[in-house]
Each structure stands twice: as structure tokens, then as C-alpha cells.
Amino acid sequence: MDFKTWQHVFKLDPAKEIRDEHLERICKSGTDAILIGGSDNVTLDNVLYLAERVQRYQLPMVLEVSTIDSVALGFDYYFIPTVLNSNNPLWVKGLHHQAIREYGEFLDWDELVPEGYCILNADCKAAKLTEAKTDLKAEDVLAYARLAEHFFRLPIFYMEYSGVFGDMGLVKKVKSVLTETRLFYGGGINSADTARKALTFADTIVVGNIIYENIEKAIETVEAVAETAG
């Protein structure tokens, strides 16, 4: 169940509807884990509702925390993003400080996993919400990756292209400078081919939007990862 062994993760947005039969196919697909999270309209109610539906399949289940009010019990891990290329300190450490001030006495620190996010698609909701500086040169992204691993000692560096397929050449360069920190990649994985390409360099790929657009293509991404691993 250790997240450091995962290669494929499906990301479900609690603000989006998914039919029971599609959810069953996702959870029985062979994916390594289900990550629940989104950029907007995430509430405690819709997180709990989705988590309850996923729990019956006994997969590792992760909550990616975007708002303090939507944190619920019962998850295997809580991924806590810190947006390294945000221009607003609220998204780097501000919200984290608020949460720890309020709940730090009760937290199980073994369940909390900090993620060093680098958001690279200027047009996505996450970039606009967090005021991310996305017009970065390769050297800037590599510096953020090294910052994540060697300065902050973060277990995950997450390259987020959210909705578009990213620069695999850059993903390859980032992977080459990481040794302990695990490289997560998300964005534009909508077929077996894009899944294979992303997994060539990333340690873990996160598949989200295609679940709601084409369930067959979503399932193909898991099969592609299995073939690559084989």
C-alpha cells in the first residue's frame, strides 16, 4: 500500500458525478490507488459521499487536501500540496500553518504526505487559483525539483499540466535530477499511448479528466501501465 510503489493512480473529483458502474470499473481496473481531490466546489459532504462509494472496493484511498473544511477521516493517506511556483504564500505554507495550528495536536503524521507541486499549465483552474507562475524555463523547473528533494525533503514532486499533455522532454530532465523524491506526473493522459509515454519518465502517473470523458480510454491507461511494467 506504500505510495512509493504506485505507478498508476486514478484521481476522482468529488465535485463531478460518476455513475456507479463507471466507478466500479475504475476501482476494479487494477489501478494502484484512488486519489480524491479537486480545485473547486470541494465540500465535506461530496468528499464523504465519494469516499463512502470508493471504500467498498478496498483500494488504497487518498484525500488530496485543498480546503481545511473538506478534510474527512477514513483515508489511508492525506496528500498535502505545497505549490512551489505559487506567487501567493498562502498556497506554499499559509493554509498548512492554519491547519496545523487548528489540528496539529490530533494529526497522525504518518498519514500526511507533503507534495511539492509545480503547476505548468497557465490555463488550468489550479494555476489561476494558486496564482502559479507558469512561464518557467527548464532550469526553473529543475531548480524546483531540487528544492523539493534536497531542501524541503519532500517525498513527492508533482508536475501538474492539468488538462494538457506536458513536455515529456522536461519530465525526463526532472526525473534525472531526483533520486529519493518520487516524481508524480498529471495532465492530458487520455489514452494507452500517453500513459506509456508519461510512465517512461515519471514514477507515478495520475489520470483524471478522461474518466469523465471516455471510460474505455481511462481503463486503457491502466492496461498500458501493466504492459509497461511487464
Structural overview:
- The chain has 230 residues and is an alpha/beta fold.
- Helices cover 38% and strands 18% of the residues.
- The protein has an 8-stranded parallel beta barrel with strand order 1-2-3-4-5-6-7-8, surrounded by 5 helices.
- The longest helix is centred in the C-terminal third of the chain and has 15 residues.
- The two termini are 20 Å apart.
What is the terminal-to-terminal distance? 20 Å
Order of helices and strands: EHEHEEHEHHEHEHEHH
Coarse structural class: alpha/beta
**Poorly predicted regions:** none
Strand count = 8
Overall pLDDT metric: 93
CA-based shape: globular
Helix content: 25-40%
Count of individual helical segments: 9
Q: Let me know the largest β-sheet.
A: 8 strands, parallel, barrel
Strand-residue fraction?
A: 15-25%
Spatial arrangement of strands, main beta sheet? 1-2-3-4-5-6-7-8
> From the alpha-carbon coordinates, what is the Rg to the nearest angstrom?
16 Å
